[in-house]
Amino acid sequence: MTVTYNLPNGPRLPRYLRLIKFITQPVKYVEDFAKVYGDTFTIWNRGDKHIVYFSQPQALEQIFTNASYFQSGGGTGILGFLLGDNSVILLDGDRHQRQRQLLTPPFHGERMRAYGETIQEITQQVSNEWTIGQPFNIRASMQEITLRVILRVVFGVDEGPLFQELRRLLTSVLDFMGSSLMSSAFFFSFLQKDLGAWSPWGRVLRLIQQIDQLIYTLIQERRAEPGESRQDILSLLISARYDDGQAMSDVELRDELMTMLVAGHETTASALTWAFYWIDQLPEVREKLQRELETLGANPEPSSIAKLPYLTAVCQETLRIYPIVANGFIRVVKTPIEIMGYKLPVGTAIVPSIYLAHHREEVYPQSKQFKPERFLERQFSPYEYIPFGGGNRRCIGLAFAQYEMKIALATILAEFQLSMVNKRPLYPVRRGLTLAAPSGLQMIPTVQATTANIPVKV
User: How many distinct structural domains can be found in the chain?
Assistant: First the structure.
């Protein structure tokens, strides 16, 4: 019996023209195609390597709950040079599931909550370096917070020569990878050439080699500390065991440390930057948030901060309106499947569009407006709200990322009000494989005033 396959309509543009827009106008790229072709569209490529975008909740539910129909992990293989072959992001099938089971426990429950005071302390250290009334780069400060948190909580290092050298090298490689040149190199293979230490790709590879040396040294030192009751994630992973009783190898540990760094540092820094942008843009949001934070009194416990409903809603809306990752993991069809009436053949790449899913008017009325209240008014399903992806590829660190966001925001807002130097609307730009606020955004800190004398808006 012959099966007739049918793909949705979509653009048939030369690959290079498409990629230029994909790199330089990442949001407009999907919005323009959705306006012309509707909810579902195909990016036609040579041969049968076509890419189909979906954003409807029903389609996303099918994709996320039918993992056996797809191969996933290979679509992000471009990150292999940085993360390594053993990264949970790049694995598929049983190996992926095996790795997830080992990595998940340190990011949940009591262990995660134990990191709250560390996040508070680091946030205070960084914000204390600001000068009242003097502009500073908000993204650079948020990156400093999230990098120190990763180094302390995940790597278990704080101060000292190893900390300083890791911090310097990691900052260099991540900043360089976020540059426009390296953002392009992810998608144009001819730019991925090692032409020596002075070439862009060559420089990144050499920085990664230096980072690797430090990480392997750290792993060896940690393994040689028997009986230590350390709670950093590296130490927990060293003591963890697979179902067959085996421990993670040094290479596996290195690859997962790099994965946690890349997935948890840049992304949370971008989310915090956007949160401060929206809080400054919308005085009513700032006042409402300030009132809620003041109910906790001085020196609140991290667990109390994490339970605040409006603060939680502000974080959720920040991740909805401009998700840091525009698309979920690419899935490649390995068993023919029908989704939304389209019969998809083997080899078809499927993209769950996080950005388009978050801007469906029937789910999020006035989707272009920042309205935290929408998260207080109703609960969204895991197929409507997907800032961390979904299904078996959902981000392991999502609870930690939201927790870190809330504590960092509350800690800063307890002391400072941050205002943009140039008040103007901002739109996402590409930063490596993620979306971020334009770099160089300057904000001015002033002493946080109490809301006691601000009239309540009815």
Answer: 1
